[in-house]
Design a protein that fits this description.
Chain lengths: 287, 212
């Protein structure tokens, strides 16, 4: 509060043109902002010149951003929801609906207020280079589905984190050149997730909502190339948390291949015998 | 089989395009498809502004993402009476872009920026005015800017699109600080007049300024 000088009305008025064009240093701008927020005198020049400066933005030629930017934005926004950083992401106790955000605009009549500050660190952490839009959708689906669970319970939080770790690893692989990604979903909507096949055949799978395996049961991941017979990628078991995050090796990485999960009675199946619990088709490779 | 699930997140389902304020309410409620739709609407303007200010495609992408994320997180703070959603959003983009170029400039003072070793960043939301700007068209604003005397246009562009402080502008242009101040004021007053907006007598009179 005392870090910057207090201003008289005329001094503040004098600085307004520089203030609205962003030509003041942080200290000076803070002093102007503080004066305007507390000054009993009207400062119409602030509104007049402020809107004039803002109008300059209209004159800038629009440029289409790279398509991948939207995917990154939505993935980061979804991560925001999952982490609870988004103020609207307050899930109700029964997990079935969202509470409307409370209005936070108590100072509407004042023309200038201390600007709110947002911490970007978590968005930066959530940002990931070169993640395709498709992959972002996968993350969104996964995160929204998780949000529907009661995140207030420690166990669910741990599950959410475990799943996100699996998704994070898959997304990292998905961003590498030549990787193809399939969103996996079950017909009944219970299971969802993604499988990413890297250029070297490394395959990362993250799926949630699977029924637990029992006895000798396993889930088997398959890659199906065109009309060719399904090739087994690997087996895994699922405990009561319904999560599967696995790294296996795939012989195939072409777009359009189907990745499917089946529930098999025993490990080591060479052809699928059990029901398909989730499947998806790989998209175009990351560039 | 998974298509229906994808479409829900990928496209907005309403047949009639929702208004900006409706979309912003969606952002406040944490609806990703509202963010998607708002992005579709203004990403090109936002990216154009961010590129103009940063002069760097990669930085401009960061700016746009940060700005939309800022809007996503703080949509509840938007005050309808204080300007359009579009103006609010573009002002955030502008503010963020200026922050980025300012932070980048004094290279010696900043630690090496590496992924993972970043200092926590903060996005400050700008004050927003701009009742009129939503109704102005690009050609009109461009003409108004072109109509300014060269020295006035220069200072306002160095400040608003260059992110230079008054001190930096004075050094760059080679004029006293008071001259920078009066030129910026005259430029804004001139723009108002060219845009057909009212100019009050107090706006005309500068206080404590050097020669223009």
């Amino acid at each position: 509060m005392t870090a910057h000088p207090t201003l008289l009305c005329d001094e503040a008025r004098d600085l307004v043109p520089l203030y609205v064009t962003g030509a003041l240093d942080d200290d000076e701008a803070a002093a102007v902002r503080e004066h305007l927020a507390h000054c009993p005198e009207p400062h119409p020049e602030l509104l007049d010149l402020g809107e004039t400066a803002t109008a300059l933005l209209e004159a800038v030629e629009p440029v289409a951003p790279p398509p991948a930017l939207k995917g990154r934005l939505l993935a980061a926004a979804a991560a925001d929801l999952a982490s609870g950083a988004h103020p609207g992401a307050q899930w109700s106790a029964d997990g079935s609906s969202m509470r409307a955000p409370e209005s936070s605009a108590p100072d509407a009549p004042i023309s200038a207020v201390s600007p709110p500050v947002i911490d970007l660190a978590s968005e930066r952490a959530a940002r990931r280079p070169r993640v395709a839009w498709l992959v972002a959708v996968a993350a969104v689906i996964g995160v929204i589905a998780l949000g529907a669970a009661n995140l207030g319970l420690r166990r669910d939080l741990d599950q959410a984190q475990a799943y996100r770790q699996g998704v994070d690893q898959a997304l990292t692989l998905a961003g590498q050149p030549g990787s193809v990604t399939a969103l996996l979903a079950g017909d009944d909507g219970a299971a969802s997730g993604l499988a990413v096949i890297g250029a070297d055949g490394t395959t990362r799978i993250a799926v949630r909502g699977l029924a637990p395996t029992s006895g000798s049961q396993v889930y088997t991941a398959w890659a199906i190339e065109g009309d060719a017979a399904p090739v087994a990628l690997g087996d895994f078991t699922v405990t009561s948390d319904g999560l599967a995050t696995a790294t296996v090796t795939s012989p195939t990485a072409t777009p359009g291949a189907v990745v499917a999960l089946t529930l098999e009675p025993v490990a080591g199946a060479t052809a699928p015998a059990g029901p398909v619990v989730a499947a998806g088709t790989t998209g175009e490779p990351a560039g | 089989m998974s298509d229906a699930r994808l479409d829900r997140a990928a496209v907005s389902g309403a047949p009639a395009a929702p208004g900006d304020e409706e979309l912003l309410a969606g952002l406040a409620a944490g609806r990703l498809e509202a963010l998607d739709a708002l992005y579709e609407r203004y990403a090109s303007m936002a990216y154009g502004i961010a590129r103009r200010i940063t002069g760097d495609d990669g930085l401009a992408e960061d700016v746009v993402q940060d700005a939309f994320l800022g809007a996503w997180r703080s949509a509840g703070r938007y005050v309808p009476g204080r300007g359009s959603v579009k103006t609010w959003l573009l002002a955030i983009v502008h503010h963020r872009a200026i922050d980025v170029v300012r932070r980048r400039r004094p290279v010696a003072e900043l630690p090496e920026e590496s992924e993972g070793a970043r200092t926590p960043e903060r996005l400050t939301l700008p004050d927003v005015w701009g009742e009129v700007s939503g109704r102005l068209d690009a050609a009109l604003v461009t003409r108004a800017l072109d109509a300014l005397p060269g020295p006035q246009r220069e200072v306002v562009e160095l400040a608003y699109f260059g992110g230079l402080s008054q001190t930096e502008i004075a050094e760059r242009v080679g004029v006293p600080l008071g001259t920078v101040k009066s030129r910026v004021r005259l430029a804004l007053v001139g723009l108002r007049r060219e845009l057909g907006l009212t100019v009050s007598p107090t706006l005309e009179a500068g206080i404590g300024e050097g020669p223009p």
